[in-house]
Write a structure and sequence with these properties.
With 281 residues, this protein is an alpha/beta fold. It has 11 helices and 11 strands. The chain has 2 domains: 213 residues, Vaccinia Virus protein VP39 (Rossmann fold), CATH 3.40.50.150; 52 residues, Helicase, Ruva Protein, domain 3 (Orthogonal Bundle). The radius of gyration is 20 Å and the shape is elongated.
């Protein structure tokens, strides 16, 4: 049985602590939603799960009961104390890393990298604070190919950006949410929005809706040079209101169907990859 709201409150009260707003701590206590997330993640015995922000261990407990191995990364020392009290010292199926999962904007913490080095493949399950959602997902997508699936809770705004299609006036699509996060994740993964979570599913309730998004890595990625594509996409979308001919220059080699007058949000992922493969800087 997942933790109840009363149990979550009690675990924090036992160490005289409350949720920390600066760390984006909002604890999911809706049992139906938690069970739906576990079902969507399709966790199997002996799977390796990277759980970022395990909190009080509500999801961790379910994952261990299924028979998965959990590498949990928690930045808050108070929550680490709660997790140690519940699950004990590290074993071959449970490891707790007290760290910020991101060493910097583009690199995982070395202890997390070390824990993942011996793993042939792993899944990510996480309730991601706004400030780390994009850099973590982009880093795992591009630099850690052993990640096969991610099931993440993020602010709805981030979910909109992850799943956004390019602009298409004929379909009444503005492309305002389409950008580097959309392009890079969709080039590496099949992206699906699973559900929306209203604020009342969490304690304390956040000010905005959240959403669960699932990323399943393509058997054959659309690009084999994600870092080069990432650099091109960054160049284009930092000037997204400019025409690509202005951004790339008059001598740029553009693939069929792409004109200098187009803007970045109009380009499909395939077109962006074609531009990158033309060695346009």
């Amino acid at each position: 049985m997942p933790q109840t709201l009363a149990e979550i409150r009690s675990l924090l009260a036992a160490i005289d602590r409350r949720p920390k707003h600066r760390l984006g701590q909002n604890f999911l206590h809706d049992h139906n939603k938690l069970n739906q997330i576990i079902e969507a993640a399709d966790v199997q015995p002996n799977d390796t799960i990277l759980e970022v922000g395990p909190g009080t261990g509500a999801l961790t407990e379910q994952l261990l009961q299924i028979g998965a191995s959990v590498i949990a990364v928690e930045i808050d020392p108070d929550l680490c104390q709660i997790l140690r009290n519940q699950f004990g010292l590290d074993t071959n199926r449970w490891r707790l890393i007290h760290a910020d999962v991101m060493a910097n904007k583009h690199t995982l913490d070395p202890s997390v990298v070390e824990a993942l080095q011996s793993v042939a493949q792993f899944s990510l399950i996480a309730n991601l604070p706004y400030q780390i959602a994009s850099p973590l997902l982009l880093t795992l997508a591009c630099d850690h190919l052993a990640l096969t699936r991610a099931t993440v809770m993020v602010q709805r705004e981030v979910a909109d950006r992850i799943t956004a299609p390019p602009a298409d006036p004929g379909q009444n699509r503005s492309g305002k949410d389409y950008g580097p996060l959309s392009v890079m994740l969709q080039s590496m993964f099949n992206v699906q929005r699973i559900m929306t979570l209203p604020p009342g599913c969490f304690w304390p309730p956040p000010k905005v809706d959240s959403a669960v998004v699932q990323l399943t890595r393509h058997p054959k990625p659309l690009t084999h040079e994600p870092q080069k594509l990432r650099a091109l996409v960054h160049l284009l979308f930092t000037r997204r209101r400019k025409q690509i001919g202005t951004i790339l220059g008059r001598d740029a080699q553009l693939p069929p169907g792409v004109t200098p007058a187009m803007r970045p949000e109009q380009l499909t992922i395939q077109q962006l990859i074609a531009i990158q493969q033309s060695n346009v800087e």
